[in-house]
């Protein structure tokens, strides 16, 4: 069952982040924005908005609240852009801002249950699949979303960043301002809870059917 849960988490995740390199592909955009190129900020929005919105939805569990979080994230990014140090990974810096925004909103309104629906507009399957396979994939993703909604906010955020967003443990630690050992502990605890949640719901009944 654990392998099935891991597969569902991987299916639920966005496309993996590119490996860090000396040349940040977003850095030219940042330089243009700093130079006063208004259109460059629109380009940045187009390239990153889907990931930020998906991240916020996974943490907050509500589409409309996630949209508010994404909007506030880009406002803070724009206001703080001059403080960003070129040579750092911009996307990680922006994710850190997004997480802080989500935490601020969660403290004000409280975390909401994650919806069972798939983010069809933000997450696309790499290739067409058979109808039965698509239904099973949808069910697995829905189950993972329900499991995520049961996690404490800190564990949920660590799991989302590590397993669904594809950040390394060290990068998640930097984003959240904690030690890597804390992230490993939170992710391990979150995975175990997701596994237990899925196992309970998938446990066969007396008649042998789930």
Give structural notes.
The chain contains nine helices and no strands. It is mostly helical and 210 residues long. Residues 14-22, 114-127 and 205-210 have low confidence and may be disordered. It has a single domain (2-202), classed as RNA polymerase sigma factor, region 2, helix turn helix motif (Rna Polymerase Sigma Factor, Chain: A), CATH 1.10.1740. It has helices spanning 2-12, 27-34, 38-60, 63-80, 90-109, 131-149, 153-164, 169-176, 180-202. Helices cover 68% and strands 0% of the residues. It is elongated.
Features:
mainly alpha; 210 residues; Rna Polymerase Sigma Factor, Chain: A; 68% helix
Overview in brief:
With 210 residues, this protein is mainly alpha-helical.
Number of contiguous helices: 9
Instruction: Supply the helix-strand structural class.
Output: mainly alpha
Helix content: 55-70%
Shape: elongated
Looking at the overall shape, the CATH architecture is: Orthogonal Bundle
